[in-house]
Automatic annotation (TrEMBL):
InterPro entries per the UniProt record, alphabetical: CoA-transferase_III_domain, CoA-Trfase_fam_III, CoA-Trfase_III_dom3_sf, CoA-Trfase_III_dom_1_sf
Domain of life: Bacteria
Name of one Pfam family that matches: CoA_transf_3
Keywords from the UniProt entry: Transferase
Record-given protein name: CoA-transferase
An annotated Gene Ontology molecular function: CoA-transferase activity
Organism: Paraburkholderia phytofirmans OLGA172
Length: 412
C-alpha cells in the first residue's frame, strides 16, 4: 500500500479494457497497478474466458473452491468488472459512452471484429479524439495473416522461439519446446503498456490520441534479441542447445550429487575464479579454455570436464563455494522454493489482497519499484459484473432506475 507521501503515477487516468485472456489483461493490470482506473468489460453470464480456466480455484472463506480460477486472478487485479452485451445496440451505445469518458482503450478482438459494432478506432476517435486505442492481435492489423487467430503457443512456434528452446537434435528428449508460461502474451502486454505510455506522452504535446497496433508475432520476433541478431549478422540459423548459450561458455546447468545447478560465467576473470573453486586451476591456463572464444570452440571438451567435477558435491555446497569465489551460480528452484527464498521474501514478491467473504487472494507483486510513485494493490480481481452499477454511476452518471432497466433487458 502507498504511504501518505506517495501518489500513484497514473492516478486520474481511465482505462476501458475490452480484452480477455492474457496479453491485454496483463497490460491493463500493469496500468491499474500504477494507479489508473481500469474498467473491464465482460460478457454477461460468462466473462473473460480465463475465469473458467481451472483448477485450481480460489477458496472461499470456508476453504471451499469457488468459480474464480487462479489463471484469471493472475492478470486482473486493480480492475472493476462491468458486464455489457455488445451484440445489442444498447450495449454498443454504453461502450461508446464509456469510451467517450476514457483515456485508453485496450482490445484484442479479431481484426475488424469491433467495426460491426461501431467500436473500432475510427468510430470512437470521432467521439473522443484524445482516446488512445490499443489493439492486440496475433498477426497485426495488416498483412496476409491479419485475419487469422493467434495464440501464444502457436506464435512461440511461428516466431522462432521454439526452434531455440529444447534439447539438441540427436540427444535424449530432443525436439522443440514451448516456454513453460505464455511468455509471448506477457511480453505483448508489456509492450502494450510501453506503447500506451508513449502515446500518453505524445498526447500531452499534441492533444490527440492514436491507434496502437500490436501483434504477438511481431513481439515474439522482437524478443529474440541476440539470437535474431546472430542470424541477421552471421547468416547462420541458430539451433536448439538445451540450457547452453550460443556465445558464452560455461553458461548452463551442471549436474551435482543431488540435482543440478546453474553456472553463468560472463568473462575470463570469472572463469578463472570458477576453475579455482572447482580445484582445477590449470583449466584457466589451458590455451583451449583461457578465453571465451576458445571455450566456445572447445565447448564439448570443457563441459565434459566440468560435469565430471560438479557431480561430486551437492548443489548447496557448490552454490556456497561459487558465492565465496564471486562466480554467478544458483539452484534450479521449484516454485515452492522460489517463494521460500529469503531474497524473494525480502523483496515482498508475494502479496495478498483481502476480499470480503473469501480467502485472501495471493498474488505475485508488481516488480516495479519507484522512489516516489507508488504501486497499489487496492482491488482484488473482480467478480463478474461486480462493479456494473458503480461504474455506470461514476463514469456516466446514470440513475439507479436506468441501470435497473438495463439489467431487466439483459443489456448489462
Amino acid at each position: 500500500m502507498p504511504t501518505s507521501s506517495q501518489q500513484s503515477a497514473l492516478a486520474g487516468l481511465r482505462v476501458l479494457d475490452l480484452s480477455r485472456v492474457l496479453a491485454g489483461p496483463w497490460a491493463s493490470q500493469l496500468l491499474g497497478d500504477l494507479g489508473a482506473d481500469v474498467v473491464k468489460v465482460e460478457r454477461p453470464g460468462a466473462g473473460d474466458d480465463t475465469r473458467a480456466w481451472g483448477p485450481p480455484w480460489l477458496p472461499d472463506g470456508k476453504g471451499e473452491p469457488t468459480d474464480e480460477s487462479a489463471y484469471f486472478l493472475s492478470a486482473n487485479r486493480n480492475k472493476r468488472s462491468i458486464t455489457i452485451d455488445l451484440s445489442k445496440p444498447e450495449g454498443q451505445q454504453l461502450v461508446k459512452q464509456l469510451a467517450a469518458n476514457a483515456d485508453i482503450l485496450i482490445e484484442n478482438f479479431k481484426v475488424g471484429g469491433l467495426q460491426q459494432y461501431g467500436l473500432d478506432y475510427n468510430s470512437l476517435a470521432a467521439l473522443n479524439p484524445r482516446l488512445i486505442y490499443c489493439s492486440i492481435t496475433g498477426f497485426g492489423q495488416t498483412g496476409p495473416y491479419a485475419a487469422r487467430p493467434g495464440y501464444d503457443f502457436l506464435i512461440q512456434g511461428m516466431g522462432g522461439l521454439m526452434s531455440l528452446t529444447g534439447r539438441p537434435d540427436g540427444t535424449e528428449g530432443d525436439g522443440p519446446l514451448k516456454v513453460g508460461v505464455a511468455l509471448t502474451d506477457v511480453m505483448t502486454g508489456l509492450y502494450a503498456s510501453v506503447g500506451v505510455l508513449a502515446a500518453l506522452t505524445n498526447r500531452e504535446k499534441t492533444g490527440s490520441g492514436q491507434h496502437i497496433d500490436l501483434a504477438l508475432l511481431d513481439v515474439q520476433i522482437a524478443a529474440l534479441a541476440n539470437q535474431a541478431s546472430n542470424y541477421l549478422v552471421g547468416g547462420v540459423v541458430p539451433r536448439r542447445m538445451g540450457n547452453a548459450h550460443p556465445s558464452i561458455v560455461p553458461y548452463q546447468d551442471f549436474p551435482t550429487s543431488d540435482g543440478y545447478m546453474i553456472v553463468a560465467v560472463g568473462n575470463d576473470g570469472q572463469f578463472s575464479s570458477f576453475c579455482n573453486a572447482l580445484g582445477q586451476r590449470e583449466w584457466a591456463l589451458d590455451e583451449r579454455f583461457a578465453t571465451n572464444p576458445q571455450r566456445v570452440t572447445h565447448r564439448a571438451e570443457l563441459i565434459a570436464l566440468i560435469r565430471s567435477v560438479t557431480a561430486t558435491r551437492t548443489t548447496d555446497e557448490w552454490v556456497d563455494a561459487m558465492k565465496a569465489a564471486g562466480v554467478p551460480c544458483g539452484p534450479i528452484n521449484s516454485l515452492d522454493k522460489v517463494f521460500a527464498d529469503p531474497q524473494v521474501q525480502a523483496r515482498g514478491v508475494r502479496v495478498e489482497i483481502s476480499r470480503p467473504g473469501m480467502a485472501a487472494v495471493p498474488l505475485v507483486a508488481n516488480p516495479i519499484r519507484m522512489s516516489v510513485s507508488s504501486i497499489d494493490y487496492q482491488r482484488p480481481p473482480p467478480a463478474l459484473g461486480e462493479h456494473t452499477m458503480e461504474v455506470l454511476t461514476n463514469w456516466l452518471a446514470m440513475s439507479e432506475a436506468d441501470i435497473a432497466d438495463l439489467r431487466m433487458r439483459k443489456i448489462v
